[in-house]
Automatic annotation (TrEMBL):
GO molecular function, one term: G protein-coupled receptor activity
Record localization: Membrane
Transmembrane annotation, as ranges: 22-49, 61-80, 92-116
Family indicated by similarity: Belongs to the G-protein coupled receptor 1 family.
Main localization of the protein described in the UniProt heading: membrane
Residue ranges of domain G-protein coupled receptors family 1 profile in the record: 41-117
Entry keyword set: G-protein coupled receptor, Glycoprotein, Membrane, Receptor, Sensory transduction, Transducer, Transmembrane, Transmembrane helix, Vision
GO biological process: visual perception
InterPro entries assigned: GPCR_opsins (IPR050125), GPCR_Rhodpsn (IPR000276), GPCR_Rhodpsn_7TM (IPR017452)
Protein name listed in UniProt: G-protein coupled receptors family 1 profile domain-containing protein
Record-linked PROSITE patterns: G_PROTEIN_RECEP_F1_2 (PS50262)
Annotated GO CC locations: membrane
Amino acid sequence: MNDAPNDVASSVVDYEDLMAPWAYNAAAITLFFIGFFGFFLNLFVIALMSKDMQLWTPMNIILFNLVCSDFSVSIIGNPLTLTSAISHRWIFGRTLCVAYGFFMSLLGNSLSFCFCV
């Protein structure tokens, strides 16, 4: 493992695969579909609710929060995870790894908070 300050490997040889190559490919295909549908369907709901003010009931506002959180996950998290699955490793460095973990936890907690309300 490379001991550089940003913890980025100098070559692919520095990392060993944690899964079989077919598992990375299956994960990449699955993540692509999750990201594709997560982006467009959540965007559709956001546009629909923004257009029709009769939909702004208290329950729908909570659901709108869920949709916005899920949309953010599809924009922020899914491309990074999909790229990593295609590359068979994390290629974005230690700082972005920590930021990715923070934002995915934050968005996941906002999703779970809505279910508790």
